[in-house]
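Re: your question from the hallway

Yes, I did run it. Sequences:
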Amino acid sequence: MQRRSLLAAAWALTAAGLVIACVVLFVRGAPLQTNLLALLPPTERNATAEAAVAALYDTAGNRALFLIGHADRSSAREAARRFAGALRDSKAFASIQAEIPPVDARWLSGPYLDFRFGLLAETDRRALAGGKSSPEAWLTRALNNPFRLGAAGDVALDPFGLLDNFLASLPYHSWQLELDDGLLVVRGDGRGGATHVLVTATLPGSAYDSQVQNATIAAVTAAEQSLQLPAPAAEVLRSGAVFFAGAARSAAEREVDMIGLGSLAGIVLLMLAVFRSLHPLLLGLLTVGIGLAAATTTTLLVHRELHLLTLVFGASLIGEAIDYSIQYFGAHVQAGRAWDPWRGLLTVRPGLTLALATSLTGYAALLLVPFPAVNQIALFALTGLAAAYLSVVLLLPFLLRRPYTHDISAITVPAGRFTAWWRNRVSRAAAIGLALAVLVICVPGWLRLQAGDDVRTMADRSAPLLEKESRIRALTGFGVVNQFFLVEGDTPEAVLRGEEALGAKLRELAVTGEISHTHAVSSFVPSAARQMENRNLLYRALLADRARLQQAFDRLGFRKGTAEAMERAYRESEGRMLTPETWLAAAPAAPFRHLWLGRTERGYASVVVPYGFSRLAPLVDAATAVSGVTLVDKAGNVSRLFREYRTGFSIGLAVAALVVLAVLSRRYGWRGGGAVILPSLLGMTVALGVAGHAGVPVTLFSVMALMLVLGVGVNYSIFLVEGGGREGTTLVAVLLSAATTLLSFGLLAFSGTPALARFGATLLAGIGAAVLLAPLALAFAPQRRAAQTQ
Amino acid sequence: MGRLIAAAALLASAAAPANAQPAALDQIRARLDAHAVVRAEFVQTRTLAALERPLVARGRLLVSRADGVVWQVEQPYRAAYVLQQDSVTEIAADGMRTRRDARDAPAIARVGRILGALVSANATALDNDFHVDAGVTGERWHIVLQPRQSQVAQRLKVIRVNGGDFVESVRIDEASGDTTQLQFRSQRGAASLSEDERRLFVGD
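Structure:
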């Protein structure tokens, strides 16, 4: 007795501490993680690649982009200024940019002018190398070319138009924005389309910080509303990780509320309906509360943050955590006036312990998976269930002393008869027949099963936001980059040479139409070797023959001394090279700065982004052909990882089933253990069959759900088999447990996140079938246990 | 001329028509719209500070309202430039075609757009980039264009277009003092392109 009280007091104190800690953590603002990427394990073999992915997502993530559109140019401009003003007044953003400070007309050519003899467009390189044209022909064509940009300003600085051609070849085409009276605008389609004005904003913190999300989204909504009166026809397009994360978070919060409150309400109603007393209900909720508090606190302490997915999953764990107390209440009901809390505990404890052991086995297997998300969920479930179990075993006997006085024989007697009928009348042959029938029905579904590992179909992406983002991409050329080349080298020069070697391969792909174009630093800054080569080409083709050069300049009427000045400039620029550092510091580099990763752990690195491709294979070939180049495909790698884990999990599931069988066999013998696990195996069969019939792909999450079907489903068979001598209340308790579990996991099936919804649906089908077929275990049930208690 | 327009175009931008002088522009437009296809000869005289004497080029111009513009230089070198809605193609003397997508060369495409608008006096398109001042005196008309953008105005002062039944002359004054004069002659209107001309646009 002493020991019991001591243990109970110790646990009560621990539980109180956990609840207080949980409340404190939440009051202080628990770090709630909404970034789906944070859930994924590092996918790149190469740390630089992983950093490149992170850097690219960061540049995209810390920025919000708006396009304010209107059919009328001045209305669009006015609306954009008003919108930017409203955002600025809200102070929700770190900075807002709409107006572009006046720039010098030569801003584009500025950074290149000093290095012009080493910069050549690809077509000019080929023409100069071919050496067919004379200096005079070059000059004549360049001066009369109707498309001459005149970017250098003075004809004498670029008489051959080479700098002009180089500038025209720069990949500014992703930049469909034009400077219009101090604002950046996108012209619709040139035929009366709307004018869109660009407004960009920088976030004050991470896009995944809920405070940042709340403040910025509220500010944007208010700014949109401020346009409604003055410019009702104005259209506001937006893009930015903060909006997706915000939408995902509010959706997940809605789901936590819906699933949590829904399963809570369901449990309350079911418990009240069955037990007709508040007492079991309150005690049940107490054990669940302690379980959730323990789970939340432990997870927060270990992982330092709680992911939204964990919270959503945790809300559905309520249904499982309450099972232990329900079994105890079943014994309470059965005992009636002869209730002794400790003897009652003795009758259910073996079943509860076995059930906990099998559940923990299932969740512990998930701890081994190198997915942060899955680890968190597993840890959450392990601690939650263990705490709920301890609360039942240690605390409830002290709290449930009064005997049960209500008469619920109206439900328990028919249930008892049903169980007795299964136990005594259903022959083993009939049971085997039923099991086989279930298998046969499921086979066609199995045959139609398809695996799905594409990570993009698993995450919830708000459809209206996606549509706005794709319109922004179409209008501006700004978009999310999922695949890119990582180019590495010991020096910046080596990186640029690697880019050039890759560029040659990619140009071949562009000719065959495999890709449309690329963004690369080497387009702006050729390697020093290439710049030297260009200088030599230019010199040999145009400057070397001084007499011919002089004659050409004279024939075209250039002022005296122009040719000499050019030669002098050429000689003076000897050894002067445009470097990435110089280029990065120049204003026109702004839209492309993210391409240069600079110094890394292993040297230097840059990113080359291909556009307009539909097949990855040629890109992979191009990457393997050049040393130091890796094709990084984050979404693809994550999907590949999902496939590997799905396969691994499937094997793990089989192993877990064997382990559970072994645990069960210690108590029931091999045949009895097989009978107890059979309903769960059939439940998994049915879940897969249903998925096949419904055309739902099997994902990593479905396999995880099957693990739970195994863990939870076995509980019901254990409870039924262990409930010998009190068949009625046991079946009622099992049905009640199953109803609450189905309710909470079933609600998960309505989650907006496809991954969670499939998880819930698989559980719903699997656990539903497992509980319906649980009596099968009785047909083979070891009679030993039943005889003992009777 | 292209250089000047290009200077303008480089930083030029979109705008909805402001319709400064709708009556005059509409009249001019109505007269120029009389022909689906216009053929003309041009003489381009550029006076550049860097050159001691003017630079003269001659050639032919073909404007098709439906297909685009062909700027065919015959002297002092031979080349043709085909401007279309979505591309700019250069045809060298040996017939080699170099096509550039408007997406890949937006600055050049914009030059093409303005060039096309100029030679067909498409006032609406011009209005996107310039303050347009137009006047009609009897059979004659003129348009004066001043860049809307301060960045463009740093380089381009004014463009003047004169004409009657057709565009007859264009004069471009740069801020640096360089000028380009375009004189059009032997303009003829037609209802459709000839086979040879069509091939210039389609390219085979």
